Structures are given as C-alpha cells and as structure tokens.
Amino acid sequence: MTRLRQLSARDVLKALGSFGFRVISTRGSHAKLRRVLSGGERQTLAVPIHKNLAPGTLHAIFRQACRYIPEADLKPWFFTDER
Hints:
By secondary structure, the protein is α+β, with helices and mostly antiparallel strands. The protein contains 3 helices and 5 strands, in the order E-H-E-E-E-H-H-E.
C-alpha cells in the first residue's frame, strides 16, 4: 500500500527540479515553475511556498505534474511504500 509523503515546498521544488523545472517567478506565497522542451513547448506549474504542504494540496500538485511527467517517474518522490 502506498502512502502520500509529508513534504515541504522545498522538497517539491527539488523533486520537480530533477525533471527540469525551474522557478521563474514568485508572487506572494506561490512559486511558478517552468520547463521548456526542445520543441519550444513550455510547461508551467505553480507550487505554494509553505513549510508543510497539506495532503490535498500535495496530491493536487502530483496530479498536475503528472500531465507532464510520467506517473511512474514522479511517484517515488511523492509516495512511500508502507508495508
């Protein structure tokens, strides 16, 4: 059974950074991340800057990131195998 990890914004930024996303701007308590593919396509995500992200917020970030990153690659960053 997999369980959602408890992550901070810094952890999420590190995870998404490993897939090529970079912080392009910060406004208020949110960071805007973007990566540009070789064909020029821009992919953008927003992450709230909080010490601990709520489980629902974290899961929403995971779902949005799955639009651009294969779920199998992203899952180890967000979920833990609890047995």
